[in-house]
Write a structure and sequence with these properties.
The protein has about 325 residues and is of the alpha+beta class. It folds into two domains: about 5-175, Roll (Endonuclease I-creI), CATH 3.10.28.10; about 210-330, Endonuclease I-creI (Roll), CATH 3.10.28. Helix content is about 40%, strand content about 25%. The protein has helices at about 35-45, 80-85, 110-125, 130-145, 155-165, 170-175, 195-205, 240-250, 270-280, 290-305, 310-320, 325-330, and strands at about 5-10, 15-20, 45-55, 65-75, 95, 100-110, 210-215, 225-235, 255, 260-265. The strands form three sheets. Strands 3-4-6-5 form a four-stranded antiparallel beta sheet. A four-stranded antiparallel beta sheet has the order 7-8-10-9. Strands 1-2 form a two-stranded antiparallel sheet. Strand 1 and strand 2 form a beta hairpin. Helix 1 runs parallel beside helix 7 (about 195-205) and helix 10 packs antiparallel against helix 11. The protein is elongated and about 80 Å long.
């Protein structure tokens, strides 16, 4: 593969990998790269396919079609954005996002680059949440643009019809500008089976939560109860995936909440220790969630030897818990 300009990106092993600004014909292969199914699982959790249609008097139709493949995370997860960027051959950019100073976004906005590196990945390693429907609609728009259909008024209207079924649909301004729009049918996502352990690792790195719960005990013999919780959440439209996780891990349960979300929860200590801890010890998490998992494991090991029933052990667990999840995010 030829190189015009080279940049360096951080990867887990602290080695340096060279990436090119040219469109790669073949994705780079490295033992240090994120697994392809991890990328898909993480995108199912955190990614977005965005199509914007904005007025532009300089174009033939008066409209400019913009595309973005985007992942937004807290700035403390910069390393995982760098790893994802490296996986896609170094294309795209990582920037502050909007007014939120604590967030960073990895974005590919070039249609040619999206066609060259993003579409081949998700065609080979397909999404399984309802986000796959957004991907299929996003891909249809790109195909129309690659065929130059966006250069005609009819083509613009057809793209608007697709856009009407993508993500949150049309904005009030677009509805007013295109009053005759007829939303296309949203694709059905029928295969919601867990495709690979690395998908689970990627999805959990985005959506997973490892909790340590400490409550005052009603028992005279024990002052506090300590419990482990592993939780994954998703919109109710993907309830089947959450239920498939029960079979996949052979533990846990699903709860539907009033906020339109479904939660896969593992609450038994033996299940968390023997199944969840064992699984993610083999199938590595990345980003801040990996550090939360490491601390969660420390608490699990203390509980395994009954240390949480002692004052010294409980104090250690409380100290670990204080720096997990939001405690870690909010710390300097």
């Amino acid at each position: 593969m030829g190189f015009e300009r080279n940049y360096q990106f951080k990867i887990p092993s602290n080695q340096i990998r060279q990436c090119s600004t040219q469109i790669p014909t073949v994705l780079p292969v490295s033992s240090n790269m994120l697994d392809p199914w991890f990328i898909t699982g993480f995108m199912d959790a955190e990614g977005t396919f965005i199509n914007s249609i904005v007025k532009d008097p300089k174009t033939r139709t008066g409209w400019n079609i913009q595309l973005r493949f985007k992942i937004t995370l807290h700035q403390k997860d910069l390393s995982i954005l760098e790893q994802i960027k490296a996986y896609f051959g170094g294309v795209g950019k990582i920037d502050k996002t909007g007014k939120d100073r604590d967030s960073l976004s990895y974005v590919i906005s070039s249609r040619k680059l999206i066609t060259a590196v993003v579409l081949p990945h998700f065609d080979k390693y397909p999404l399984i949440t309802d986000k796959k429907a957004d991907y299929e609609l996003f891909k249809r728009i790109i195909e129309k643009m690659n065929n130059e259909e966006h250069l005609t008024e009819q083509g613009i209207q057809e793209i608007v019809n697709i856009r009407a079924s993508l993500n949150l649909g049309l904005s009030p301004g677009l509805k007013e500008a295109f009053p005759n729009s007829v939303p296309v049918s949203r694709p059905l996502v029928e295969d919601k089976n867990i495709p690979d352990p690395q998908w689970v690792a990627g999805f959990t790195s985005g959506e997973g939560c490892f909790y340590v719960v400490i409550n005052k005990s009603n028992s005279e013999s024990v002052e506090f109860n300590v419990r482990l919780r592993f939780i994954l959440s998703q919109h109710a439209r993907d309830e089947q995936i959450m239920r498939n996780l029960i079979t996949y891990f052979n533990c846990g349960n699903c709860e539907k909440a009033k906020d339109g979300m479904v939660y896969f929860k593992v609450t038994k200590f033996t299940d968390n220790y023997e199944k969840i801890l064992s699984f993610f010890s083999i199938h590595q998490l990345h980003g801040v969630k990996a550090t939360d998992f490491q601390d969660w494991c420390k608490v699990a090991e203390l509980m395994k030897i009954k240390a949480h029933f002692t004052r010294d052990g409980l104090d250690k667990i409380i100290k670990i818990k204080e720096n997990m999840n939001k405690g870690r995010i909010n710390s300097d």
